[in-house]
């Protein structure tokens, strides 16, 4: 047999072998399976292999068998804080999970949840979360409906806020942060 025919036979045999390894059963999860909502906004897989599913009604963690819905956390004083719509999920180099929601920031250190919210900035929604090389967490927020027209300068200004958390204290870099968009 020629080299071409031998190669073709090997490819066909391997193809049948790989086809038998392919997953044929898919499982669909919905609110009936414990999800906070049947509409997933986005997913995130952390370094521990936990699959997190963000919804408009909270967060869900997949244990490998079941979904664990998280719609609220209970603080040390016993008060309950609802998550609401999840906007961003970020994992720090220490493995802490930061969850930005429309209600504020929730941080999970793999043991406890902590809630951060600034009452003066309740109309601001987190757009970017990141960690710098020193382990500081930076939060860039944008005010919902905060676009201002600055006709005399020829652009729109979006009201924003920049904060930094160094592990024990928040720093607020006040002022207006924004971008521009051409106007006619």
Protein described:
This protein has one helix and 14 strands. The strands form four sheets. The chain has a four-stranded antiparallel beta sheet, with no helix packed on it. A four-stranded antiparallel beta sheet has the order 7-8-9-10, with no helix packed on it. The protein is 10% helix and 44% strand. With 184 residues, it is mainly β. The protein has one helix spanning 3-21; strands spanning 42-45, 51-55, 58-62, 67-70, 72-74, 80-82, 86-91, 97-101, 104-108, 113-116, 124-131, 137-150, 155-165, 170-173. A hairpin with a 5-residue loop joins strand 1 and strand 2 (51-55).
Main attributes?
single chain; 184 residues; mainly beta; four-stranded antiparallel beta sheet
């Amino acid at each position: 047999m020629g080299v071409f025919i031998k190669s073709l036979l090997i490819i066909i045999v391997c193809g049948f072998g790989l086809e038998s390894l392919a997953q044929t059963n898919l499982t669909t999860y919905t609110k009936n399976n414990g999800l906070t909502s049947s509409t997933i906004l986005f997913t995130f897989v952390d370094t521990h292999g936990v699959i997190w599913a963000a919804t408009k009604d909270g967060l869900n963690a997949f244990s490998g068998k079941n979904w664990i819905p998280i719609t609220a956390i209970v603080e040390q004083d016993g008060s309950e804080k609802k998550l609401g719509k999840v906007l961003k999920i970020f994992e720090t180099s220490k493995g802490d999970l930061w969850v930005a929601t429309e209600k504020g920031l929730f941080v999970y250190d793999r043991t406890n949840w902590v809630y951060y919210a600034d009452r003066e900035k309740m109309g601001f929604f987190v757009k970017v979360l990141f960690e710098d090389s020193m382990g500081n967490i930076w939060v860039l927020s944008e005010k919902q409906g905060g676009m201002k027209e600055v006709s005399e300068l020829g652009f729109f200004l979006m009201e924003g806020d920049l904060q930094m958390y160094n592990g024990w204290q928040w720093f607020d870099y006040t002022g207006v942060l924004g971008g521009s968009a051409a106007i006619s």
